[in-house]
């Protein structure tokens, strides 16, 4: 039933990610690069594959996934599942991953990994559904906000769980999950995913109201349905899940990463480039396409994919981050990089996370003119940015710095790029293929 190979490089990558000084010291050196042009392929979505890997706990049979990006966050989730007893084979060249959870030997997650990656909390729902118990460290704090898990817990409580919190762990047990109506006070992506996974094997019907409608939720639902789950309404604010007795193994292709696509679209805009993106879903990109079009960037579907190019002067815009189909908070920092170079006043309001302006101080070091007023940032476009030493404070902030560095005069050194590598597969290689001058260096400045 299960393949019994494991992946040696998983452990290697995890050690590099979390502990390796070399990796933490790695930097990008970026030089001014104009007119990026060419065609690149967008990878599978990080935020879709993480919950899908967690969902594989729900079956003892093997699942086969395609278009899995070899990102450090993916390796982290694999290690969490392997520690519980799952067997994983990851062919990174073919981007296929086989996972068989079988009967897991434990339902307790270790602190070190949980502390680093919030998405690790997504194994809670599947563990409760399949094993009626789970003990997971409280996810660590995060630079972009406090990111509590109260909505996940509200859902588990409604489904009939007992929750204890002590010694930094959340310890949940149930005599058996029972379907319930659950209203989320905010359409949390993670809470919707966790509750949806738990409800697939619950007794009776669960309705999640004010559910998140992100494309990654629909991809998870598609995967669960192929496993035999009974789910309706994914992609809307009301999801209904009728519990089934058991789920089967299945095969699934992960959706393209809309945030990676948005980042490269912004790279075309900021470098006055002309890029074609292969492997995208235009529906998922609607809010990004809408706001980029408002700046006067041209976007059109061509035979090979989505073409993004500039014609004429860019216009300043106002944008507000919102749950899907609103403008994604993960694109806020990359968009702000573009706004710093557009003449006039742009405005960004961040409504999803309370502290997601950490990139602002770094962009200011490069010459950007940005003022923060509560949850808004007022950006006055400048004539030029200048290369500087800056630090990636989180994943998307790091991506924003790369974009600004491409537009800046001279050379920019971006440190702490391990944040970027959590979510962008081979970003420097993809940018280089479009003509960008970017090197990835270890601390001794050797290109790797
Ligand atoms: C996911 C994405 C992340 C994205 C975010 C919002 C993954 C792995 N990560 O994160 O890239 O930026 O959605 O689109 O998919 N909240 C609560 N209580 C909870 C849960 C969340 O108050 O129990 C709050 C958070 O603090 C935050 C807001 O809800 O202010 C949104 O969080 P949520 O949608 O849960 O984001 P994540 O699932 O963590």
Q: What does the model show?
A:
The chain is an alpha+beta fold and 448 residues long. It folds into 2 domains: 18-43 and 256-441, UDP-n-acetylglucosamine1-carboxyvinyl-transferase, Chain, CATH 3.65.10.10; 46-253, UDP-n-acetylglucosamine1-carboxyvinyl-transferase, Chain. 33% of the residues lie in helices and 24% in strands. A 4-stranded mixed β-sheet has the order 21-22-1-23. Strands 2-14-16-15 form a 4-stranded mixed β-sheet, covered by helices on one side. Strands 4-5-3-13 form a 4-stranded mixed β-sheet, covered by helices on one side. Helix 12 links the parallel strand 17 and strand 18 (345-349). Helix 3 (46-55) runs parallel beside helix 9. Mean pLDDT is 92; it is low at 1-22. The chain binds uridine-diphosphate-N-acetylglucosamine. Residues 47, 50, 118-119, 145, 147-152, 186, 188-191, 212, 216, 329-330, 352-353 line the site of uridine-diphosphate-N-acetylglucosamine (UD1). Uridine-diphosphate-N-acetylglucosamine (UD1) binds at residues 47, 50, 118-119, 145, 147-152, 186, 188-191, 212, 216, 329-330, 352-353.
What are the defining features of this structure?
single chain; 448 residues; alpha+beta; UDP-n-acetylglucosamine1-carboxyvinyl-transferase, Chain; 4-stranded mixed beta sheet; disordered N terminus; binds uridine-diphosphate-N-acetylglucosamine
Biggest sheet details: 4 strands, mixed
CATH topology of the largest domain: UDP-n-acetylglucosamine1-carboxyvinyl-transferase, Chain
Q: Kindly provide the radius of gyration, computed on alpha-carbon positions and rounded to a whole number of angstroms.
A: 22 Å
Distance between the termini: 40 Å
Mean pLDDT: 92
Query: Helical percent range?
Result: 25-40%
The tally of helices reads: 16
- Provide the domain count: 2
CATH classification class of the largest domain? Alpha Beta
Number of strands: 23
CATH architecture of the largest domain: Alpha-beta prism
- The low-pLDDT segments are 1-22
CATH superfamily of the largest domain: Enolpyruvate transferase domain
